[in-house]
Amino acid sequence: MSGLAIRAAGLVKKFGDFTAVDGVNLQVKHGEIFGFLGPNGAGKTTTIKMLTGTLKPTSGKVEILGLDMKDYDVEIKRRIGIVPDEPKIYEHLKGYEFLDFIIAIYRLDKKQLEERIDELCGAFGVDYLSKLVGEMSHGMKQKLMLISVLMRKPEVLFLDEPTVGLDAKSARILKELLRKYASEGMTIFMTTHILEIAEKMCDRVAIINKGQVIAESSVAELKESYGKSLEDIFLSLTATDDIQEIVENL
Questions:
Q1: Phi-psi bin for 219: left (phi > 0), alpha (psi -120 to 50), beta?
Q2: Domain membership flag for residue 107
Q3: How does pLDDT run across 6-57, given as a tens digit for each residue?
Q4: Pairing of β 4-15 and β 59-64
């Protein structure tokens, strides 16, 4: 098996005359927690959509688990998991019906998963599987989406702002679970605006701005190179205005 779980080469995505992602190259190893950081509109979500096969690149190449997305998109989608920043779930379904739907789509054994679903529901405080999705808050939907993905234990897990909407306890449990799964060989690719999470959790990070990756390294190497905290490094690379001056003018 290749040492890379995720590889993007020359990834470009254009929407008309606008270039959202401009020549992104990424290499993520098996069992790595990789943080993908950037300001709003930098191209993070567009990149994830291309890496997971939900959006076709204008040009460039994506390989997941050694397979070319162009030729093996169905096989790849079977082996990965995706938790988007906005959980889109059929609102007319009840929670348990949504989980049954995912089990059927992936042709999983429901009986083998029952104990795991119960454990995950207990961990995240999900006691509302009989409630309609349309009646759930954003945080409740986020937990349901997490359970629907984590119950499968995918080989590669993509998370777009995974802690948004989660209470403090659930966010902590998720972070501990991700560390555990990575130690067991799962590859985790995550975006987050919370730089403290990236600093504490990620083996390596890449910073994207205006569609281009402008830094990629381990957090320790970045901090040593710049002599600053990850937050200060991030702001120095991506912020165009002086923050102190902005505050003073308010």
A1: alpha
A2: no
A3: 999 999 999 999 999 999 999 999 999 999 999 888 999 999 999 999 999 9
A4: antiparallel
The domain total for the chain is 1
Token pair for residue 120? 């995950």
- Determine the Cα–Cα distance for residues 163 and 195; give it in Å rounded to an integer: 12
Q: What is the CA radius of gyration of the chain?
A: 19
CATH code of the domain in which 169 resides? 3.40.50.300
d(CA 118, CA 174): 16
- C-alpha span between 212 and 39 (Å, rounded): 12
> Structural domain of residue 188, as residue ranges?
4-35+42-88+155-248
Instruction: Determine the Cα–Cα distance for residues 63 and 5; give it in Å rounded to an integer.
Output: 8
Is 95 in contact with 113 (CB distance < 8 Å)?
no
Written as six digits, the tokens of 33 are 């927690």
User: Which residues have a Cβ under 8 Å from the Cβ of 206 and sit 6 or more positions away?
Assistant: 26, 34, 35, 36, 37, 213, 215, 216
